[in-house]
TrEMBL record, chains A, B, C, D:
Residue span, HD domain: 55-167
Protein name, as recorded: HD domain-containing protein
PANTHER family noted in UniProt: DEOXYNUCLEOSIDE TRIPHOSPHATE TRIPHOSPHOHYDROLASE, DEOXYNUCLEOSIDE TRIPHOSPHATE TRIPHOSPHOHYDROLASE SAMHD1
SUPFAM superfamilies, alphabetized: HD-domain/PDEase-like
Listed GO biological process terms: dGTP catabolic process
PROSITE patterns the record matches: HD
One MF term in the entry's GO annotations: dGTPase activity
InterPro entries to which the protein is assigned, alphabetical: dGTPase-like (IPR050135), HD/PDEase_dom (IPR003607), HD_assoc_2 (IPR045509), HD_domain (IPR006674)
C-alpha cells in the first residue's frame, strides 16, 4: 500500500511532513483543531503585530523538530522502534492540548487552580478511548512512565523540542532576532547516553547561545512591560466580571460557552467540564470583552474599551517593590480622575512581580557528554556566561497606573 | 522640540519607524486598531497555518514601503513637499479602513452590495472631522483628486505599495516562497516622469518577476481550492442564517453587533450603519459560527461544525463548467446521506467560477521609462513571459461536494 | 563501532553532514581540495561582489541535496541499497572534479577541445585505483551504466541536484533573489516510476517556478553583459598569450604550472597531462594576469591591466548581429585611440553570440507523474508559462568595444 | 543635472546604493579594486567553506551601514553637512585600504612591523593628491582631527560600522548564526550627544546581544582552532622562506611582486615600497605556496603541500601554557617521523597564545544616553551578562603538533 504523505507549508521551517495514520487522526481531531483559535502568545500582538500565531502552529512546529531529533538520534544508532517514534511524535502534538483561551495569560483562571497539563492529560485519555488505545504509549511517554527517559526528555526538559520551537517561532513572528536559538545545530548535537538525553561536548556554545537567546526573549518579549500591562488588564476584566456575578449580575452573560465557567465556577475536572472546556477558546474571551465594553458597570466597561482600543494602563518596572504611599497616591488620583471610589480604583492601579523563570540549577538540567566519556551538568561547565545566565531567577516589580 | 520616534518590530521588514504626530494619531485611533481583529487572508490559515496575520499589520507594512518609495523618489530629486509626504503615508495607512470581517471573503455580504472602498472613504471623512481636517490632503490623494497623479498611483495602481506589501507579506506568512516579489529592487527602480509613476528600463526583469510571483500566489494561495471551499462554506453559513431570519428565526441572534446587520439588513451607508460597522470584526463572525454550531437548523448547524473542525467540503477545479447532471447527482447523494431535501442540499453541493484577476492590458498599466526617454506600457515590451502572464484573466470552475 | 560524523556550516543550507568513510576520503583528497581554488562563477564577482564561492562549496551543496533527495525517495519506499546510496553521493561530490580554472569561462581553452566531463571521468578512474575500486559503482552511476536510471538522473538531468544547488547557491551569493528555485519543495515532489525520476503532479507549480528562476538567472547573472565582457577579455588574454608564444615569446612564462599548458599545448589526455592539470587552478591564471600586466606586448599588457582594475570593455547586446561596418568603424577608432594596428584592435573590439541554453523539448526532459498514473513530459503540460520558458533557446548578439 | 545612481547586489543587505562622484572615483580606483583579491577572513574558508568573501565586499558593506547610520542621525536632527556626509562615507570605504595579503593573518609580516593602518593613511594621501584634495576631510575624520568626534567614532570605536559589518558579514558567509548582531536595531538606537556617538537607553539589550555575538564569533570563528593552525602554518611558511633567503637561497623567487618584499625586506614606508605594496595581494602568496610545494627544502615543501591539501597540523587549546617537556617530546617525535633535525621540527611543533581581544573597560567605550539625560558607560550598566562579556580578555594557549 502506498504511504500517504502530506506536506504543510511553515514559514519557519519550510515544510512539515505528515505521513502516519495516527498523526493524521490527531491533527484532524476537533480537540486539536481548537488550538487554531488560541493565540500562542496571548496579547503580545499588541506590541509585536506579527505575533498572532496559534497554538496549533506551535504544536505542528514542535512535531517537526521532534521528527528531526528522532532522525538525528537514529542516525547515531540510538535504538528507537517505529512504535516509539510514532508515539513520541503523537505526544508532542498533544503536549498543549489542555491550554485554555489566551494560554498562560489566563492559566488557572478558567477552571479555578487547575493547571493546563492536568487538563491536557485528561483530554488525551478521552482521545485515547476514541482512538482505541492507540495513544497509550504516547501518554506513557508524556507522563514519564515509559522506560526510556530520553523520549520524555525530548518532550519536557530544559532542552525539549517544545522550548526549541516556541523560542524559534516566537522570535520569528515577533521579529525579535535576539531570540534565534540555532535549533538545527542543537539538534545535531543531541545524543543519548545511559537512556538520558545529552548534548555532545562540541555543542556547548550552542547551549550558551540557547540560554542567552531565551534570556533575551524573556526580557524583550515575554515580560515586555506593555504586554504585561495588557495581560494584567485582561485578568482584571475577568476578576471584575466574576465579582459582579458574585453580587448578582446577569448582564455578564455572553450567550456562549464562557457563561458556564463564569456562572458555574467549576474548580475540578469532570466529564461535563471537559466537554465545555473543549468548546472554549480565544473567540469567547474576545467576544466577551467586546460585549462588556457596553456593560453598565463603569469599571468593567472602561477596562474593556481600553483593552479593545489599545489604550493600555501605564506601567513601570523596578528592582524593588513600590511603596504603599506611592500606590495609594496613584489610586487616589485615579479614583478622582475617573470619579470612582478607591476600591474600584484597584483595577486601574495595581502592582505585582514579574519573574524570569530561567534554568534552575537544582531542578531539571542539561547534561553534557564529553569526548572522554565524562558527564557534567551545564551548571558545572567552566563558562562564565552560562553561569551568569542560569543563576537564580531574576525578579522585577511592576506597577500599573492610569496615567 | 525633540521629534518623538517609535519603532515597531516587523518580521517581514525588520523595523517600521513612526515619527509624525498625524501618523501616531491614525494608528492610535479605534478605527485603525479594529483592523487588528480582521485576518488579512480570511480563512487561508486553514491551509497555511501561518497565515493568521492581520489587516493592521498589512497597513503598517504598506506604510513602511511607502516610506521607502518616497525616500527613493526624493533621492532622485522628484519634488515632494513634507505635507505631501505625510499625506500619502496617512492615505496608505487608511487604504483598507473600510474592510469588514474576513475581508474579501465576505465583501459586500455585510452591508449589502457596498464595496469596502466606499465604506473606507466615508470613515476617512469621519476621522477627518475628528482630526480637524488634517486628513484632507490624504483623502484627496486617495480619491485621485490631488494634482500629482504619482502620489495616487503609489497607493492604487498595478505597482502600488499595497500590492507590494500584501504579496510580500502573504508570501512570508504562508511560507510560499514562490510569492517573493523583490519589493526592494522594484522600489529602487521607481521614478516619476511627467507626473506619472514609472519604472526604469533596467527594472524590466523585476517587473517580470513581480508579475510571475503574483500569478503563482493566485494559483497556490488566493485561489487554493481548499481555501476556496472554506470561504464558500462561510458564505453559505451567512446565507443560510439570513434565509432563516427571513423566515422568522430569532435564534440566530448572537448578542453582538452582527445582529444589527443580520436583522436590520442595511444596504446603504448612514451614520448609524457606520457606527455599527466599526464595532464589527472577525470575532463577531467566529462567535456566531461557534454559537450556530448548536442551532436547531440542521443545515446551519452542520456547516458551522464542519467549518469549525476543518471538515471542509470536497472541491474540484476544471477548465470548463460542471454539467447539470453531475451537480444534480451530487445533490441527490448529499440529500440522501444527510437525510435532507434537495433544496437544503444546495448548501453542500454548489458550483461557481474562480477568477485570477491579473493585470488587464486595457485597464490600468505599468509604464516603463527607457534610457532614451521613450515610454512604453509593459504590454508593449518585447518579453514573452510578461505577455503570457498579463494576457486575459484565467478562469476556472469549481464544484464543492459533500464527499 | 561508533560512526564518526562531521558537520560543515553552510550559509545556504545550514549544516551539511558527512558520515561515511568513503565520503571523508573523497573530501580529503587533493583533487577535491583543488576545487577550493576554482571560483564557481568565474568572473561574475566583478558585477556581484558576493559571488566568490568555490566549486568545492558547490560540490558539498549538491552532495547535501543528494542526501535530502535520497532520504525523501527512501521515505516513499523506493528501494535504494546502502551501497547505492553511498555511491550516488560519491558521484555527485565528484561530478565537477574535471573543471579547470575559471570553470566554464575557460572550458576547452586549457586542454584544447577537451570537455571537463571527459577529464573528470579520467580523474575519477585514477582516484578509483587509489581507493581500491571503492568508486566503481559511483563511476557506473555517473556514466549512466548502472541499471537504475533514476540514480544517474539525480546527478545529471533537467532536475538534477547539480542544477538545484548551483541555481540556489549562485542566487544566494549574488544576492539575486529572482533565482530562488524552492529546492526543498521540488525534492519533496520527486518520485521514481519504472526506474525513472519523476515529479508528482502537485509539483507542477514548483517546476514552473524552477524554470522561470533559471531563466531569470540566465539573463540577470550568467549572461549579464558586464560579466560577459570580462570573460571574453579573459579569453582574449589567453589567446593573445598563445599567439605571442606561437611567434616565439618566452616572457609569457609564469614560473608555474600554466607554462606546461601554454608551451606544451596538450590536446589530449595522458597521465602527465592529468598530473599537471591537477596542479592548475584559478591562482595560476590570476598570477599570470598580474604578471602579464607588465609584459612588453602592449595588447597583452593593456588587456591584463584593464581586467585587473575592472576597467572592462564596453558591451552592447542586440537581438540581431552587428553590421560589419559598425564593427570595422569601432576597430578603426580603437586602433587610433590606442595607437595600434587593426589586427591588434581585434582584441578590443569583437563580437559573438550569447545563448540562453534552456530546457530543450527534444532533448532531456522532466517527466510528471499524474495521480491517475499517467506520465507526461513537462512540454506536454497545459501551462503557457512553462511552454514559453522552455521553448527554443534565446540568443543575443554582443559586441565589445573600447569606448 | 540628473544624479547618476548605481545599485550593487549584496546578499547581506540586499542593495547598496552609490550616488556620488567621489564615491564612484574611490570604488573605481585600482587601490580599492585590489581589495577584491584579499580574503576578508584569510584562511577561515578551510573550516567554513563559504567564508571566501573579500575585503572589497566588506568595505562596500561598511559603507552601506554608514549610509544608514547617517540617515538615522539626520532624521534625529543631528546636524551633518552634505560635505561631511560624503567625507565620512569616503573614509569608511578606505578604512582597510592598507591591508596586505591574508589580512590579519600576515599583519606586520609583509612590511616588517608596520601596521596596516599606517600604510592605509599613506595610501589615502597618495589618492588624495590624485583626486585634487577631495579626500582631505575624509582623512581628517579618519585620523580623528575633524572637530565632530562622532564622525570618527562611526568609523572607529567599539560600535563603529566597521565592526557591525564584519561581524554581520562574517556570520553570514560562515553560516555561524550565533554571530548575528542585529545591526539594524543598533543603528536605530544611535544618537549624538555633546558631539559624541551614544546609544539610547532602550538600546541596551541590543548592545548586550552585540557583545555576546562578538564573543561567540571569537570562539567559534576567529579563534577556531583549525583556522588558527592553518594561519600559523602560513606564517611558518613565510618564516621558513625568509630564513632560506637569509642563508642564500634564490629558489624562493616567485617571479612576482612578493620577491621584492622577501628579498628587499623593506621595514618602513617609502614611495617605492607603497607602489610595490599596491601590487601585492592574496594571489601572490597563494602562488608562492603552490610553487614552494616543490621547493627542494623539505620543511618548506612539506608545509606548503600540507596547507594546499588541507592536511593541517593538529592543534590543542588549553587554559594554561604547555610544558616544555611536552613540547620537546612532540618535537622529537616529529623530527623522527619526518627524518629532520629538531631545529627544523620547530616548524611542525610550536606553541603560542590566542587572545580574545574583547571590549576593554578602560580603553574605548560605549556610552549610553538615558532618558533622564544621564550618560553612563556600558561598563557601568547594571547588567551581569554585559559585565561578564566585557571583563578582561580571555587568553588560551595553543600547541600545534604533527600528529
Amino acid at each position: 500500500m502506498k504511504t500517504t504523505q502530506k506536506i504543510i507549508n511553515d514559514p519557519v521551517y519550510g515544510f512539515i511532513t505528515i505521513n502516519h495514520p495516527l498523526i493524521f487522526d490527531i491533527i484532524n481531531h476537533p480537540y486539536f483543531q481548537r488550538l487554531r483559535r488560541i493565540h500562542q502568545m496571548a496579547l503580545a500582538y499588541l506590541v509585536y503585530p506579527g505575533a498572532v500565531h496559534t497554538r496549533l502552529h506551535h504544536a505542528l512546529g514542535a512535531y517537526h523538530l521532534m521528527c528531526n531529533a528522532i532522525a538525528e538520534l537514529k542516525a547515531k544508532q540510538i535504538p528507537i522502534t517505529e512504535e516509539e517514534e510514532v508515539a513520541v511524535k503523537a505526544a508532542i502534538l498533544l503536549h498543549d492540548i489542555g491550554h485554555g483561551p489566551f494560554s498562560h495569560a489566563l492559566e488557572k483562571y478558567i477552571i479555578n487552580s487547575v493547571h493546563h497539563e492536568t487538563i491536557g492529560i485528561a483530554l488525551m485519555q478521552m482521545m485515547n478511548q476514541e482512538l482505541d488505545g492507540r495513544l497509550q504509549m504516547a501518554i506513557d511517554i508524556f507522563t514519564g512512565k515509559y522506560p526510556k527517559p530520553f523520549l520524555h526528555q525530548l518532550i519536557s526538559s530544559q532542552l525539549d523540542v517544545d522550548r526549541m520551537d516556541y523560542l524559534t517561532r516566537d522570535s520569528f513572528f515577533t521579529g525579535v532576532s535576539e531570540g534565534v536559538i540555532g535549533y538545527d545545530r542543537i539538534i545535531k548535537m543531541l545524543t543519548v547516553h545511559q537512556g538520558e538525553l545529552m548534548v555532545e561536548e562540541k555543542g556547548i556554545y550552542s547551549i550558551e547561545k540557547f540560554l542567552i537567546a531565551r534570556r533575551q526573549m524573556y526580557w524583550q518579549v515575554y515580560l515586555h512591560k506593555t504586554v504585561l500591562s495588557a495581560e494584567k488588564m485582561l485578568i482584571h476584566i475577568l476578576e471584575r466580571a466574576r465579582h459582579l456575578i458574585d453580587t448578582g449580575d446577569t448582564q455578564c452573560k455572553t450567550g456562549g460557552t464562557l457563561d458556564f465557567f463564569l456562572y458555574e465556577k467549576p474548580s475540578k475536572i469532570s466529564e461535563e467540564v471537559l466537554q465545555q472546556f473543549c468548546k472554549l477558546d480565544d473567540v469567547d474571551i474576545s467576544f466577551a470583552i467586546k460585549k462588556w465594553a457596553s456593560h453598565p458597570d463603569f469599571v468593567l466597561q472602561t477596562l474593556c474599551n481600553k483593552l479593545l482600543n489599545r489604550q493600555l494602563l501605564k506601567i513601570k518596572l523596578d528592582s524593588k517593590p513600590f511603596s504603599n504611599e506611592f500606590i495609594e497616591a496613584q489610586r487616589k488620583a485615579a479614583a478622582q480622575q475617573l470619579n470612582i471610589n478607591e476600591r474600584q480604583a484597584v483595577h486601574f492601579v495595581f502592582t505585582g512581580e514579574a519573574v524570569n523563570t530561567m534554568y534552575k540549577p537544582n531542578d531539571e538540567n542539561i547534561k553534557i557528554l564529553f569526548k572522554n566519556g565524562e558527564i557534567r551538568d551545564i551548571s558545572g561547565i567552566d563558562n562564565p556566561l552560562i553561569h551568569q545566565t542560569i543563576s537564580s531567577p531574576i525578579k522585577k516589580f511592576y506597577i500599573c497606573t492610569l496615567t
